[in-house]
Amino acid sequence: MSRLGKTTLTIKEFDAYAKINSSTVTRRFGKWNTVIKSVGGELNNTFYSEEELMENIKNAWLKKGTQPTRRDMDSKEYSTITSGTYLRHYKTWYGALEEFVKYISRDENNVIKEDQSTKNNHIIHKTKRDPSDRLKVQVLMRDGNRCRICGVECSGGLHNIHFDHIVPWSKGGETVLDNLQVLCSACNEAKGNV
Ligand SMILES: [Zn+2]
What we know:
Bound molecules: zinc ion
Number of strands: 4
CATH class of the largest domain: Mainly Alpha
CATH architecture of the largest domain: Orthogonal Bundle
Number of helices: 8
């Protein structure tokens, strides 16, 4: 019944996420368990963990190819959680984005264990070849959601964006923030043909 796999809400959780206080509810409904029985299912539908809220912004960012606006969050094309939910948690859309920047910068998540390293032409890599979604958003943010060569904005969605290894992967370049750049299709192709 719940996105979090929870079957019930505690009073503390309720108070943290609901606008009305649990004591108001228990005055009206009696025991907390009765409250849960009658409205618990509906409450759980609006209960999102911080990680779910942040992952949803990450997905919207990658689907759009650039920073999503508050309005984008109400579009099913980009988001499964509405802007209203973000405003309840973070007061403003800007506040949600500020939190997101912290969340996405926490780690690169692309480093692999030594025993999983890829040996390719005697080159041993410490990272996976493909950047993680988290790393992709970090690169987009740093490059201002624009192609680093021609400056075109990456608003056409992820299929138009290339995460280019500055030092090529085949020459030992790693998949880390410093060695990645945003390129549009045209610039990526041109670079490949040189
Ligand atoms: Zn370009």
